[in-house]
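[step 3/7] fold_predict: job queued, chain A
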Amino acid sequence: MKHNPTASRNEAPKLGRSRPSSAVGFRRVQVARAFEEIAGQIREELSTGRLAAGDRLPPERELAVQFGVSRNTLREALRSLEISGLITLRKGAAGGAFVQGSSGATVVTGIRDMLVLGAVTPEEITEARIWIESAVVRAACERYTAADLADLRANLEAAAEATERKDFGARAEIHLEFHLLLAKITRNPIMETVMEALISVMRQFIQRIGPQVIREYVLPSRRRFLKHMEERNAEAAVQEMERHLRRVNRNYLARLGELGRPDQ
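[step 4/7] structure written:
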């Protein structure tokens, strides 16, 4: 079963929840720093808990009066907060500016953009993935439950079926999902978000490379890994995962090198 590790954190806020505007104390801002100050004050209200996920900010007209700025200036600040993933702007009678639930979407987008803009190389992405996944595996070996192991085994079975069908697209997606399941087992939303970002980039690599020969070593490596994990042998599990990732990454990088930069 496909699992989306961030689904619970990306649910749309409930439109019916709206705190009285008097609960939030915004101050007039200096015109020269209006943009930064508006965003900063709203972030401060979020950090103190006076604003929470699902809350609706006061109407634009009221906010503009509180901050002492024009509605255009206010809208620019709100749009910047929306881009940052902190709020969502909705139109219509039931619309307005709503505090967004916690989301790692900006991290995912940021890492993808860094790659496209050339701020990082595919080699740096794959290297970071090995480091981070090693930490994920150690935590997963310590924290997994019987249900977690069942999910991983189900993923392995699904990958075997896709391999038998020679379905490259399904097999690749199932293999990527395995790593997201591992991150979920850490019970750490930051690790889940970072892994989601890295897997998103890996997915781009795979789409660019296109269908590949079925790699016979992947499923045996998965089975060895699960055996080590079930024994809570973190060192052996990490070694198996690192060997697997280095081998896979060599194939990715070789093909990407033949095709040119990911953004070309």
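[step 5/7] annotate
The first helix runs from residue 34 to 48.
Confidence is low (pLDDT under 50) at residues 5-16.
exit 0
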